[in-house]
Write a structure and sequence with these properties.
about 350 residues, five-stranded mixed beta sheet, 11 strands, globular
């Protein structure tokens, strides 16, 4: 009998679900939400009942036999620093996600939905490679002031999955090669240095620093942030909205759609300029890891839908092609990564880790 897995991925205005039978995805649906759906909801956690009901109603509408589901899986959220791996979702993890121990972000919602739905079906739920995976060296995690610290919050699951897939494609072990991995998500960007199977340095992609993303700011000048807080009297909510979703493309051409950005880039000079600036910042971040890896880079991996855009790929690749060969994965492999790891658990190839 095949292993049947329900996968959940959450975005700001979309809940994405898929069902697989072993490796094969047999059902997939994007449940879109409008701003009006959340107009009376003050914080992310209050969206949980709405999104859970939306998933269950969609499965019922599409005549999916939910009783056949054996596992529910999600990408891990902003948790405490942890090791790479597959974790069973438990009350400790749920509490930390609700409390926003690593930050309040919609990525936290996926694991909560997985836990809630799995409990109703009396089955297990997992997260794969939480965004808070931390394998950095002491030097990479050092920060210049003791009252704060750099966080390791990035697209860990995609990094690990595609790095292993690439290594396998060239008949090597992931642990034997050095990779600079750039993932451009729908909101933010992470650029990680993988040395022999560990992410030894990475920018804080979620509400942190590094290249600007589609809607997140990346690095901001600290003095400007101080002015915004104390001279212009921005509230915490206003600051978080500015950092997380109202920057770059949203602030210039007022859209929350990556597809609209891609279409606009064909004939809108402002969009073209922003795209080139974004590519320039990403290229600089990638190049910085030439130092991290002592000049020994086996491959630069580019991941994300944006790389379907030939113009953007050219903007970026021309600046980094002299560093190492480039491998590109322009599709969305989120569900494939989840399924791959859960099947590893089911087949006894990896051991479930406990979140502590």
């Amino acid at each position: 009998m095949p292993t049947i897995i329900l996968c959940i991925n959450t975005e700001v205005f979309c809940t994405k679900i898929a069902i697989s039978e072993d490796e094969k995805i047999v059902y997939q649906c994007d449940i879109d939400h409008s701003k009006e759906d959340f107009v009376m909801i003050d914080n992310i956690m209050e969206q949980l009942p709405f999104r859970r009901d939306a998933i269950m109603n969609q499965l019922h509408y599409d005549v999916v036999d939910v009783k056949s589901i054996q596992y529910v899986v999600a990408e891990g959220g902003l948790l405490k620093p942890c090791e790479t791996g597959v974790y069973e979702i438990d009350k400790t993890m749920v509490g930390d996600l609700i409390d926003g121990i690593g930050g309040d972000d919609i990525i936290n919602m996926a694991a909560l939905l997985a836990f809630t739905i799995a409990n109703s079906l009396r089955i297990k739920s997992f997260v794969v490679d939480p965004a808070s995976v931390d394998e950095r060296s002491e030097l990479a995690s050092f920060y210049s002031h003791p009252i704060t610290k750099k966080k390791s919050l990035f697209h860990a699951m995609i990094n690990k999955y595609l790095s292993r897939q690439y290594a396998r494609s060239v008949n090597k072990n992931y642990e034997d090669i050095n990779i600079v991995f750039c993932h451009v998500g729908d909101r933010n960007v992470s650029v990680a240095a993988h040395r022999h199977g560990s992410v030894v340095d990475v920018n804080q992609a979620y509400m942190g620093y590094g290249p600007m993303g589609f809607f997140e700011t990346g690095t901001l000048p600290v003095s400007n942030v101080v002015d915004m807080l104390f001279k212009k009297h921005y509230t915490k909510t206003e600051m978080l909205n500015l950092i997380k979703r109202d920057a770059t493309f949203h602030s210039y051409i007022v859209t929350n759609s990556v597809d609209e950005i891609m279409e606009s880039s064909k004939n809108n000079n402002k969009t073209k300029t922003i795209m080139e600036a974004m590519a320039y910042q990403i290229a600089k971040e990638i190049a910085s890891h030439y130092v991290t890896l002592d000049g020994k880079i086996d491959v630069i991996i580019l991941s994300g839908k944006i790389f379907d855009n030939k113009r953007f790929f050219k903007y970026l690749s021309k600046r980094i092609e002299s560093l190492a060969k480039i491998e590109c994965y322009p599709n969305d492999y989120t569900f494939e990564a989840m399924i791959y790891n859960v099947l590893k658990v089911v087949n006894g190839e990896i051991v479930i880790k406990k979140y502590v």
